[in-house]
Amino acid sequence: MGRIEGIYPKIGVASGEVLISHREFGPPEIIGNPANTGARLADMAEGGEILCDSNTYSFVKFKFEFMEKGEVKLKGMKKKVSVFSLIDRRKGILRKRSFGGEGFPFVDREKELFLLKKFVEDVFTEEIGKVVFLLGDAGIGKSRLVEEVYSQALGYSLENMKQFQWYEGKCNRGIDTVAFQPFIEIIRGFIGEWIDGDPEKIRGAITRYMDDTEDTDMIMHILGFGKRRVGISEASEKGKIFNALLQFIYGISLMHPTVFVIDDLYSADTSTLEFLEYMSGRLNRFPFLMIILSRIDKNLPFWRVKENMKSLLGSTLVEIYLKKLHEEDALKLIDIMKGKENIPENVIKRAVELSHGNPLYLEEFIRYYIERQSGRETDIPPTIRGLIDSRIDSLDPGTKEVLEEASVIGYRVDREILGMITDHFDDLNAHIRKLVNASILSDVSEGKTENLYFYHPLYREVAYKRMLSRHKKRLHKKIAQTIEEHFSSRIHEFYEELARHYKNADEKDKAVKYSILAGEKLEKNYASQEAIKFYRDALEICEDRSKTYELLLRIAHLERLSGNGNKALSYLEECERICENTEEKIKVYTSAGTTYESMSRYDEALTYYKKSLSTGKEIDFRLKIPAYLGIAWVYYIRGKYDEVENAIMKIKGFLETAKNPDEIDKQHLARAYNILASTYNSTGRHEFAFQLYTGALKIYRSLGDEAGISTIHNNLSGIFSGIGD
């Protein structure tokens, strides 16, 4: 680390979330582990040394070299902290990312690579160049694609024994913004090191390639060695600088086939953008290939410049938009990255889901897991969070607040609801337009409804997690109440959303109510696992014992239908523990018998069915019919047809004495007919079987029970097949 004579700062850097409290007087108060860690690292550093923690290291290790100092116990910290000492900026043409010591895998960009390779070959063979805008989200693979283009160009150069030139410059808008930033880096790359910072040596290196003394003066001016000339207008001075810079890059491109790469144009300084427009209007032919990388943000000045360049250059300018990876390519990428590491399926699934086809996000999720071999599935790696945080921070305050409101609504944002709950109703459309132009939200018309979607799920997650808990709760409650008030006529469409909003608002009673309604709705649509999720959500916060009992029974029933018998039994055990009366116990025992029956564990099924019958002998017979039906079915499977008839006759006896037809559960009656018919069919009494099947079919049709109807049709075909009809 270089030192300034006489100044030896001790610097500690830590990354993470902090809470900043702005006070009326004095500096803001910063609270959080990163602030404490940074201070302790600064205390630990030697004079002139910069120390950082593992989070910071993971952000910048691709651009800077570090020496690992191991894990250190810092004062006041419970856990040890991994410490890294900064050595220097990484050198080389490209700053390659790596995974496990190998180059980052290249997947699903063959078409784009083919096109760029063709442009490189055109520069080599015909000296005809292009300006290529490579556009896409942060981490989508722009830099990785350029790395591959460099490898292709190098290979072509070696194969044809033809020298080529490759220069890179990166835009950087911040507190240290420099005019013509990327072109200064390109000039540095051309003349080599700064030659000890000696202006005369630098001038000498430039003069070798420029005939005009004034142009050389202008290049020196760009590099910071010139003096402002008195009596010359700013416009005239800028025009001379533009001309000198154009002559410089045009001149060096005539020496050998040349590729210029300009990275992060979205953060370009004004002078760089103005020069690109100037260049586009002055050159009739491009003897070089210029690849410009940028994210998509139509709100920023560079986008207008790009559009102007497109109109000036016509077919010489090409736009390539990098799309997200398909799921199969994402899985292929994970397979390459993880190597021999054993990564659980749920972690892989979560990584694919949240990365949304973004290679960098995918890599960071997998790396984050491997480095920790633990962590919650919902953890967002700090590198990804930092990228998205910086993008959100670049928004104006009003747009940022609308983004936060949208994140509380969900991944799909109902525009009508957003309009009802926002604090920025008057200028909402303008804020939405900014978010759409920035590719944070996408605007989709679905029939008569206009919905917004988060361009990437992680944008929503990061925006949501930035907010204070009490503010999120207030918004969740406001959204839920708005839905209840304005959409009461079709409230059933919003059960799932109302359950989520009231749960996150910590309104437990309403959350339980809508979670149960959502579960019932999904259950009717045969979406058992989705229904279970809502029932479990209700179970977590339910404080009413009787509702808890019903929820446990429902979940057990659905788990059994889904083939998860052991899970169903565990819920039934929990259900039995909270039973308060005989009726509840009978239902639990019968359900346990049905579950064991579905698992082909017939002895245990009979045990629980009989336990149900022996519990509360004076209880309403209707509660015991399901147990008799279960016993009858088990005996039918075992071929004990006399026992089947005995069980069914018990049911028949009750049905004949029932005074009110409404007391009879038609579902049970249809099942009794079906079991007895199957017994008759198995013992050759086909005519009786046919009559009973027909009776069961009528009942199932009246109930609209498609599964029951299908079962009877199948059984009837068995009769006709058995008698050769």
TrEMBL record:
GO cellular component: cytoplasm
Source superkingdom: Bacteria
Cited SUPFAM superfamilies: Nucleotide cyclase, P-loop containing nucleoside triphosphate hydrolases, TPR-like
GO MF annotation list: adenylate cyclase activity; ATP binding
Keywords associated with the record: ATP-binding, Nucleotide-binding, TPR repeat
Coiled coil spans: none
Orc1-like AAA ATPase domain sequence ranges: 106-291
Keyword Cell membrane attached: no
Record bears the keyword Nucleotide-binding: yes
Entry-linked SMART domains: TPR
Stored InterPro entries: AAA_16, Nucleotide_cyclase, P-loop_NTPase, TPR-like_helical_dom_sf, TPR_rpt
Sequence ranges of the TPR repeats: 586-619
Pfam families with a match to the protein in the record: AAA_16 (PF13191), TPR_12 (PF13424)
Protein name: Tetratricopeptide repeat protein
Source species: candidate division WOR-3 bacterium
